Amino acid sequence: MSSTLPKYDVFLSFRGFDTRRHFTSFLYKELTRKNIRTFKDDQELTSGQRISPELENAIKDSKFAVVVVSVNYAASTWCLDELVKIMDFQKQGSLTVMPIFYGVDPCHVRWQIGVLAEQFKKHEARKDCEKVPVNLLSSGLIQTGSISYQTGQ
């Protein structure tokens, strides 16, 4: 890890459809109110888009990643791609990951059962040539489900 200070204290990873207008917005407001430098991507993304270099840099330039795993988080290839990057930086020792399971049972994440299993089946069935290998995506989610966590309703 470099000796320079990270640009952000926290990188927020979340599924906008599920949590942007309530939980994630409140979390972001509280973090910034406490002078915690927080990155929150507010773009509405088109299906199939890949993570941008700017977003990857924001992850790399953060001390912590708070991953808000919600019901539709795994339905988004973008979120899963972002999660793979987050877990890569965690493995390198440059990022600490803190998952929050919002309306999702952490066991369902860890074992990929219920709605999450259905979402991964849909990813596997996709025919586009840009798809990320599902085993790589599911590995990131399983790792997240194995970290100590907080649950939110």
Identify the notable features of this structure and list them briefly.
153 residues; alpha/beta; Rossmann fold; 5-stranded parallel beta sheet; 7 helices; 19% strand
Provide a descriptive summary of the structure in words.
The chain has helices at residues 16-19, 23-33, 53-60, 77-91, 106-111, 115-125, 134-145, and strands at residues 8-14, 38-40, 62-70, 96-102, 150-152. It is of the alpha/beta class and 153 residues long. It has one domain (8-43, 50-152): Toll/interleukin-1 receptor homology (TIR) domain (Rossmann fold). The termini are far apart.
Total beta-strand segments? 5
Output the helix-strand order. EHHEHEHEHHHE
Distance, first to last CA = 35 Å
CATH topology: Rossmann fold
Count of alpha/pi helices: 7
| Total count of domains | 1
- Which strand-content bin applies to the residues? 15-25%
> Roughly how many Å is the radius of gyration?
15 Å
The helix content is 40-55%
CATH architecture descriptor: 3-Layer(aba) Sandwich
Structural class of the secondary elements?
Answer: alpha/beta
Low-confidence stretches: 129-138
Q: Report the mean per-residue pLDDT as an integer.
A: 79
CATH structural class: Alpha Beta
Biggest sheet statistics: 5 strands, parallel
What is the CATH superfamily label?
A: Toll/interleukin-1 receptor homology (TIR) domain
Keywords: NAD
Organism: Arabis alpina (Alpine rock-cress)
Domain TIR: 6-153
Pfam families: TIR
